[in-house]
Design brief:
By secondary structure, the chain is α/β, with parallel strands linked by helices. It has seven helices and 14 strands. The protein has one domain: 4-Layer Sandwich (Metallo-beta-lactamase, Chain A), CATH 3.60.15.10. Strands 6-5-4-3-2-1-14 form a seven-stranded mixed sheet. Helix 6 runs parallel beside helix 7. The protein is globular and about 50 Å long. The mean pLDDT is 98.
Length: 234
C-alpha cells in the first residue's frame, strides 16, 4: 500500500482548519514525514506514535516547514526515543538544533535513500534557501512533492512519469515574476498540464483567497485539485 496523508496545506502561517506544510508517506509500512510545520506534530500524533516514524524529511528550514521539530524533540525526550531526520546541510540554526539534539539522528541530504522496495530521491529547487523537492518510488509508482521554489529544471525530474504530485504555490500570477521564491497558481497549473500528472496544489498563502488561487491554477489545468486534509492512494 502506497499512500499520502496530507496533514497541512498552508504556507506562511496556519489557520484554524489547516496547519502549515506536512505530509505523511506510507510505503508498505515504511512511514516518512515530509516537513513538520506548525500544527503537524499533533496531526501525526492523531495517526501514529511519532517515535515510530521511519524518518522525517525537512525540505528546508523556513518556519512554515520545520517549526514543530522543537516540540517533537520534547515529546521524544519523554519517550527516551530517537528519530532520524534528513535535511539540507546549510549550517542554519535549525540544522544545528536538530543535529545537536540527543533525540534526533541528523542525516544531511546528499544522496538517495533506499530501503526494501522504497527509493527516495532529492532535487535542488530554486528557492531563497537551500531547498529540496523529493520523489518517492514504491510498487512501481512515483509520488513527488515540490516543496517551495520558482521555476527551474528540477521540475522535469520531479514530475516526469509521476502518479501523484503535490506542487506548492504561493502567489497569484499578477504578483509573480522570475525572481520570486515560489510559483504562482498559474505556474502550478502549467506544470501539471505539461507533465500530464495527477496533481494537487498546496502551500496556500492565507492572505490570498484560496478559491482564487485554485481557480487560477485550474484555468491552466482543469484536472488539478486542491490538496485536502485526507489520505490519497498513490
Amino acid at each position: 500500500m502506497f499512500t499520502l496523508q496530507v496533514l497541512g496545506t498552508n504556507g506562511l502561517y496556519p489557520t484554524e482548519n489547516s496547519p502549515t506544510s506536512g505530509y505523511l508517506v506510507n510505503c508498505n509500512g515504511l512511514r516518512y514525514l515530509v516537513d513538520i510545520g506548525c500544527g503537524i506534530f499533533n496531526k501525526v500524533k492523531e495517526i501514529m506514535p511519532p517515535e515510530d516514524l521511519d524518518g522525517i524529511i525537512v525540505t528546508h528550514y523556513h518556519f512554515d516547514h520545520v517549526s514543530d521539530i522543537g516540540v517533537l524533540s520534547y515529546y521524544l525526550q519523554t519517550k527516551n526515543k530517537r528519530v532520524t531526520v534528513y535535511g539540507p546541510d546549510d549550517g542554519s540554526p535549525y540544522q544545528k538544533l536538530i543535529s545537536d539534539s540527543p533525540y534526533f539522528d541528523f542525516v544531511p541530504i546528499n544522496c538517495s535513500i533506499e530501503r526494501e522496495n522504497l527509493k527516495i530521491c532529492f532535487y535542488k529547487m530554486n528557492h531563497s534557501v537551500l531547498t529540496y523537492g523529493v520523489s518517492f518510488y514504491c510498487d512501481n509508482k512515483k509520488f513527488s512533492y515540490s516543496s517551495d521554489g520558482n521555476l527551474c529544471d528540477s521540475y522535469c525530474s520531479l514530475l516526469t512519469s509521476c502518479d501523484l504530485a503535490v506542487i506548492n504555490c504561493g502567489l497569484l500570477n499578477k504578483d509573480w515574476n522570475n525572481s520570486k521564491p515560489v510559483l504562482s497558481a498559474c505556474n502550478v497549473g502549467d506544470l501539471a498540464q505539461k507533465y500530464g500528472v495527477k496533481a494537487l496544489i498546496s502551500h496556500f498563502n492565507p492572505s490570498i483567497s484560496r478559491s482564487e488561487l485554485i481557480k487560477e491554477a485550474q484555468s491552466r489545468c482543469e484536472s488539478l485539485q486542491p490538496a485536502e486534509l485526507k489520505e490519497y492512494l498513490i
